Amino acid sequence: MAKPQQDRAVKTREAIILGAAEVFDEYGFRGASISKIMKRAGVSQGAMYFHFKSKEDLARAVMTAQPDTVVPRLGAEGLQRIVDMTFVWAWQIQRDVLLRAGVRLTNEQDGATVRDATPFLEWARILEFSLAGAQDEGEIGESIDIGQLAEFIVGACTGMQMYANAVSGRQDLPERTVAMWRILLPGITSERVAASIDLNVHRFA
């Protein structure tokens, strides 16, 4: 009997996180409430507090789930994998409420009760791991500090999506991501490698 109970618990937790993401995406952290999240998720108060003790705990769960909506969709390796990661992100933020809510919560931390740099650090860690592999394969210049490059890409994407959200509701974010790489690639790799990178962002549409 333990397995069905565990399965129900997992499904309930997933439903709560999805409901929370929808509410956070719509109202932001300040405008969201536990009651709204419970209603959206279709769960009881007991079920809610069994899995999450507070709205802050829910916000952290949504924020830290961001890579799970992007990384599993990647197939390439090396520098192409890093480019593709940003391309998948650019499309997914338009249609995946969990990613979109996580991004909103991460960007709205100033003045909120949730102060957590984990989402930024996790993205930088994932990027740095792939960048290290690309550098070992000679795709990225030896003089490039991959830690700094990973942080730069995270910062650039963060600012870019905020700008795109303001001017187009993020509809042009994929094209802006391509433009970022056209500017960045010549500074981190050779002309030969840069020419080999597939910048067709619509592969992931």
TrEMBL record:
Gene3D superfamilies, A to Z: Tetracycline Repressor, domain 2 (1.10.357.10)
Gene Ontology molecular function, alphabetical: DNA-binding transcription factor activity; transcription cis-regulatory region binding
Record has Acetylation as a keyword: no
DNA-binding region range list: 33-52
Sequence ranges assigned to domain HTH tetR-type in this UniProt record: 10-70
Keyword set, alphabetical order: DNA-binding, Transcription, Transcription regulation
Cross-referenced SUPFAM superfamilies: Homeodomain-like, Tetracyclin repressor-like, C-terminal domain
Protein name, as recorded: TetR family transcriptional regulator
Naturally occurring in which organism (per UniProt): Streptomyces spongiicola
